[in-house]
Fold:
Amino acid sequence: MTIDGAVRMTNVKNNIILALSRSGAAAGLIHPNGRVYHYGSRVEIQARHQQGNNKYAKMWYKGVSFTAEQCALVYLVDAAGTRTTTDTFLDMSQDFTLNVFYK
Structure:
């Protein structure tokens, strides 16, 4: 924990890391089954798949975007329905919780 209120907790035994920025505007979770990164008005989720076809979702002002590693298309679901889009997802393969903690 920092003096200004940021928190980062690590569970080494279960390989889980949780971080919350001092303002609460960003949060990150790393878990063996997936990752969640909340920043500003967006939430990005990565669900791990044992055979390597990880799933990705992003909730943001446009709606909900989702895809999978072995899928060439990204879909956006909003008030108009479902359609393909060119949205991109963050690379959450590294420990992004340190950025959340130190912001």
Remarks:
- The first strand starts at residue 7 and ends at 11.
